[in-house]
Amino acid sequence: MSLLLRLSGLIDRINTAVGRTAIWLVLAMTLVSAGNAVIRYSLNTSSNAWLEIQWYLFSGVFLLCAGYTLLNNEHIRIDVLSSRFSRRTQTWIEVVGGVFFLMPMACLIMWLSWPIFMDSFVNGETSSDAGGLIRWPAKILIPVGFALLALQGLSETIKRIAFLLGIAPDPAAAHSSHHGGGHD
Q1: CA dist., res. 169 & res. 133, Å (int)
Q2: Alpha helices, DSSP H only, in the chain?
Q3: pLDDT tier, 183 (very low <50, low <70, confident <90, very high otherwise)
Q4: pLDDT tens, residue by residue, 55-69
Q5: Which residues form the Tripartite ATP-independent periplasmic transporters DctQ component domain (predicted)?
Q6: What does the pLDDT look like over 156-165, one tens digit per residue?
């Protein structure tokens, strides 16, 4: 289990680095959006490329930060039912959900999206809109983002099993003490 906990720590560090870097895409997206609006209204001109860059940046934030969001227990969920269960029962639900739902779904999307990216890359696919961009940079975000999410699902499962075995602290307790409580 010690090796698995070290693997979990490595995955956590990777998603932390990716997440903290990808967060800067929000600033880039805002600047591109504002710049595009200023140019469009002041010079009465624009380009589809500027709109597509905004879409790419938004996709980068959403997809690259999914694992980071899971790491920090900030994903959306409804605690109405689970809050009535003991922490151990909640942890078992999280383990089962991770193993049977989250990781298979993330791996399936990663697997299915890879050929779509490769086809776009090999064929040099570009947007059909005038002035549009090449498509593969946006398409690579899908398998990469879901790979990061699947890895974080594995890390969270490892931490929760270690907690259930009594060899590691409750990972949810660490997040609630940093963030001021649970989520709705």
Answers
A1: 47
A2: 2-22, 24-43, 48-64, 66-71, 87-97, 103-123, 136-164, 171-179
A3: very low
A4: 999 999 999 999 999
A5: 29-161
A6: 999 999 999 9
Which percentage of the chain shows pLDDT scores above 90?
Answer: 65
Instruction: Tell me the mean pLDDT in the region 78-94.
Output: 83
* Cβ–Cβ < 8 Å for 169, 180: no
3-state SS of 35-66? HHHHHHHHHCCCCHHHHHHHHHHHHHHHHHCH
Contact predicate 33/57, CB 8 Å: no
Query: In angstroms, rounded to a whole number, what is the distance separating the alpha carbons of residues 54 and 39?
Result: 15
Sequence ranges of the domains in the chain: 2-179
Q: Which residues, 6+ apart, have CB-to-CB distance to 18 below 8 Å?
A: 64, 65, 67, 68, 148
- Distance from C-alpha of 145 to C-alpha of 35, rounded to nearest angstrom: 27
